[in-house]
Amino acid sequence: MLYLLHWPKREGRAWRYYLLALPKELQRIIKASWQRARDGRAFCDHWNIDMWFQDIMPDLLLDLVENNCGWPPELAETPEEWHERLRGLATKLQALKRHEDRWFGEDGLYDTQSHEQYRKETAEARNAVVEGLEEFKTIFFGLWD
């Protein structure tokens, strides 16, 4: 929901339409926040599970690195090795989100002249996420504190 902070930098009166939509958007944000607090998820999360996962899981993994008190000895020899593995996994899972942020930026538009480069980089980012999900499978039962 951080897209509210990315106001378009266009000339003219377009910003007025965003101001008119702001109360309705705030109502949606409050409703989703209440649903997450009550149920642990919001109805709007179903529409975009892939980006929700890419927003939440890397942050959880990095938080586990900073605030853990143990590591699974069957998956890593030392705590440092476990932390590096979690950091690498977080980086892989964020690859597509970083790619989309770089290409679409604040205004949500990208240069159509470089469409082939976009497709190539999208495939590379998706491959990184797939590698991350494969690694996630192997460490899933070791994600405890």
Structure description:
With 145 residues, this protein is an all-alpha fold. The chain has helices at 14-39, 49-66, 79-93, 95-104, 115-139. Helix 3 (79-93) packs antiparallel against helix 5 (115-139).
Compact overview of the structure:
By secondary structure, the protein is an all-alpha fold. The protein has helices at 14-39, 49-66, 79-93, 95-104, 115-139.
Task: List the SSEs and their pairings.
Elements: H1 14-39, H2 49-66, H3 79-93, H4 95-104, H5 115-139
Helix pairs in contact: 2-3, 3-5, 4-5
Percent range of helical residues: 55-70%
What value does the Rg take, in angstroms? 19 Å
Number of strands: 0
How much β-strand is present in the residues?
A: under 5%
Average pLDDT rating:
81
H/E element sequence: HHHHH
Number of helices: 5
- Count of the domains: 2
User: How does the major sheet shape up?
Assistant: none
Structural class: mainly alpha
Gross geometry = flat
Q: In angstroms, what separates the terminal alpha carbons? A: 29 Å
Q: Spans of 5+ residues with little confidence (pLDDT < 50)?
A: 1-10
Question: What's the multimeric state?
Answer: single chain
What attributes does this structure have?
2 domains, disordered N terminus, single chain, 145 residues, flat
